[in-house]
Specification:
The complex is a heterodimer of chains A (328) and B (247). Chain A is mainly α. Chain A is built from 13 helices and no strands. In chain B, 40% of the residues lie in helices and 26% in strands. By secondary structure, chain B is α/β, with parallel strands linked by helices. The chains are: A mainly alpha (328), B alpha/beta (247). At the A-B interface, α1 and α4 of A face α2 and α3 of B.
Chain lengths: 328, 247
């Protein structure tokens, strides 16, 4: 029985190797890592200051012969500092994934390499699955580098060690990010492959990116009444939670519409899931994973379905070699 | 399948796009061991025929068997038995010759791919190109690496689409010698061309396609006996082409 995975593995590995030689992608990935780190450094320095202040106070107490327990040990939440990193992945990472998907399509389309592959014992779906697997590998490798660097810098600069639970949350965030970027990569790949011209595909993909990654979440955020004042209207007016809920109930229809715009965007689901996982959203800071999962499994499912559905569409649509092997 | 099975058998193989018929019902048998020259003007339907026979295109009607494998029912076995060199072949520019060939060899299911690559490079006399990136190559060098990927897995049948297109005289001569050696090794070769000199020097049989119709098909000895020298072959080629155009 033929090994159906073999051509997929061979083509996907070749794609990943080529991506690592693609100067444009290397520069883009380096820029993403740098942007992620820059957004982290100031926070890490501030965290170091907080830790040092506590350590100094504790040392003073001990020097005075007093019990260090007189001051409560502060809880540091170093992962909260990854907000900027996640926002870079949401926007910049998505652009890189989109272009990587486009480049994976044009690497074969209009060149005779596609004809050379499809005249070998390779099924069309295997070729497509391989291209998607290549995107998955590229996304996973890129984010592994980004998160490994951020973890190292966070630890190194702040001096606050990451716990095992923190590392587990980072791994889950990496997995969510890989899924998110693979979905965007698939979008770029599919449009560059399906449309009459791959450049049109890239333009359409960017238009969708603009709507999905920037416009929809931004409209949703802007329409949120609580976002009209820095720090939140309710918080600044010190309105209790029960009263907040009562006020919100009066705007249920509006809130459903506003939330609908936000949740149409896969980016928002990625953000909601990962902000909860890393405790960036205050209501989830320090909460156990079981609580976060109960609240955010819908976002995780959306992320999974978005990527799986796009991948499924790519696999189901048969390649038209007549169109795709025409020289450009 | 036996070795007496013809290399290619087509019956009313047709390709149409809407109302436009690119290849009119083509019925032809090409025995094994031939170097078949497929002649025709630009746009005559030669490349479409190769694309049909290599499974890149689905026919609109008709049947074909290539290397004993049915086009419609056994495309995977068919692909395993053929090699294909498209016109203006372009491989992966960021990869070396060796890396490109290893990739295509693995896709062909070769287990001893490194040895095969070394043998093929030696056969084509391009060992020196092994570690160079393909993106830096001239047209002639690319063509030879392209030929290497096509014969790497020792196919029964080799399809060459305008293999001499854009090559300098030295490149044309080298390619001719390689084709002769492949033929001597028992490989069947199907070659699209409009270079009559190549047909006269290389092919054992020819077919002439004009506006998607096969208008002539015979063995080279018969062509030579009937038409004499290359000049007469040119008259035949232009004659059948022109009469078809003016018909």
């Amino acid at each position: 029985m033929p090994d159906l995975r073999s051509p997929i593995r061979i083509i996907a590995r070749r794609d990943a190797r080529e991506a690592l030689r693609d100067r444009f992608l290397l520069v883009a990935i380096s820029a993403l890592s740098l942007a992620a780190l820059v957004s982290l450094v100031t926070g890490a320095i501030a965290l170091k200051g907080d830790a040092a202040t506590y350590a100094a106070a504790r040392a003073t107490l001990l020097a005075l012969g007093k019990d260090a327990a007189a001051i409560a040990a502060p809880e540091f939440w170093p992962l909260k500092l990854l907000r900027g990193t996640l926002e870079q992945i949401e926007i910049m990472g998505a652009v890189i994934a989109l272009i990587a998907g486009y480049r994976a399509a044009v690497a074969e389309r209009g060149r005779q390499t596609l004809a050379l592959i499809l005249t070998r014992p390779v099924r069309h779906w295997q070729f497509l699955a391989a291209k998607l697997a290549g995107g998955l590998m590229l996304s996973a490798m890129t984010l592994a580098v980004v998160f490994a660097l951020t973890a190292l810098v966070l630890n190194g600069i702040s001096g606050v060690p990451l716990t095992l639970s923190d590392l587990g949350r980072l791994v889950l965030t990496w997995a969510a990010g890989t899924l998110y970027l693979t979905g965007i990569y698939t979008l770029g790949f599919a449009l560059a492959l399906w449309l009459r011209s791959s450049v049109s595909g890239l333009v359409y993909a960017f238009a969708l990116w603009l709507v999905v990654v920037l416009v929809a979440p931004q409209i949703g955020d802007t329409m949120d009444p609580d976002n009209q004042v820095a720090g939140g209207v309710f918080a600044s007016l010190q309105i209790p939670k029960a009263e907040q809920d009562r006020i919100k109930a009066g705007f249920a229809g509006y809130e459903t519409f506003r939330n609908g715009i936000e949740v149409a965007s896969v980016t928002k689901h990625f953000e909601r899931l990962t902000f909860a996982l890393l405790g960036i959203k205050d209501s989830y800071t320090g909460k156990p994973l079981s609580v976060i999962w109960a609240d955010k499994k819908g976002d995780a499912l959306f992320l999974l379905l978005f990527t799986a559905a796009l991948g499924g569409l790519v696999l189901m649509r048969r390649i038209n070699p007549d169109q795709l092997t025409q020289e450009t | 399948m036996t070795t007496t099975t013809p290399a290619i058998v087509t019956r009313d193989l047709t390709k149409s796009y809407g109302a436009a018929t690119i290849l009119h019902p083509l019925t032809i048998t090409i025995p094994r061991g031939e170097v078949f020259g497929f002649l025709g003007h630009n746009g005559a339907g030669k490349t479409t025929t190769i694309r049909l026979l290599t499974t890149l295109l689905a026919p609109s009607a008709g049947q074909a068997s290539v290397a004993g494998h049915d086009l419609a029912t056994d495309p995977m076995a068919l692909r395993a038995a053929i090699g294909y060199l498209p016109e203006n072949v372009r491989l992966y520019d960021r990869f070396t010759t060796q890396e490109n060939l290893v990739f295509f060899g693995r896709l062909s299911g070769l287990s001893d791919v490194e040895d095969r690559v070394a043998d093929t490079l030696a056969f084509l006399g391009i060992e020196a190109l092994a570690d160079r990136r393909v993106g830096t190559f001239s047209k002639g060098m690319r063509q030879r690496v392209g030929l290497a990927q096509a014969i790497l897995h020792r196919p029964e049948l080799l399809f060459l689409d305008e293999p001499t297109s854009g090559l300098d005289p030295m490149g044309v001569r080298l390619l001719r010698e390689i084709v002769a050696r492949l033929h001597a090794s028992g490989m069947t070769i199907f070659m699209n061309t409009h270079l009559l000199s190549e047909v006269a020097l290389t092919c054992t049989s020819i077919g002439v396609l004009a506006q998607g119709r096969l208008v002539y098909h015979d063995r080279m000895e018969a062509v030579t006996a009937k038409y004499g020298d290359e000049r007469a072959l040119e008259d035949l080629y232009l004659g059948v082409g022109l009469s078809e155009v003016t018909a």
